[in-house]
Amino acid sequence: MDGRHYDRTQQDLGNIVELGHVNNRIPDQRLATLFYIAGHGLTRDPVLMTSTDNMWVNVGKSHFHLPTGEAVHAPCTR
């Protein structure tokens, strides 16, 4: 070994503290439930959004809003 160590700060995302509200359109709510709730173990909001065409998922203080619909692709602006 050359004495170097792994610098974990190299993968910091600009010191993100929280995401707040992330909005993603989801074509299939069933698969989204498997991915976010069953797969990642996150919590579905049981009070504010309980319909079958929009799911809110809580991640600590952050929230994913996942309405049913096809993704919108924004043009690249470089």
Task: Summarize, please.
The chain is α+β, with helices and mostly antiparallel strands and 78 residues long. Helices cover 14% and strands 22% of the residues.
What this model shows, in words?
The protein has 78 residues and is α+β, with helices and mostly antiparallel strands. It is 14% helix and 22% strand. The protein contains 1 helix and 4 strands; from the N terminus they run βαβββ. The chain has one helix spanning 29-39, and strands at residues 21-23, 43-44, 54-59, 62-67. It has a 4-stranded mixed β-sheet with strand order 1-4-3-2, covered by helices on one side.
Mean pLDDT: 80
The end-to-end span amounts to 42 Å
The run of helices and strands is EHEEE
Instruction: Give the overall silhouette.
Output: extended
Computed CA radius of gyration, to the nearest angstrom: 17 Å
Structural class: alpha+beta
Low-confidence stretches: none
- Kindly state the number of beta strands: 4
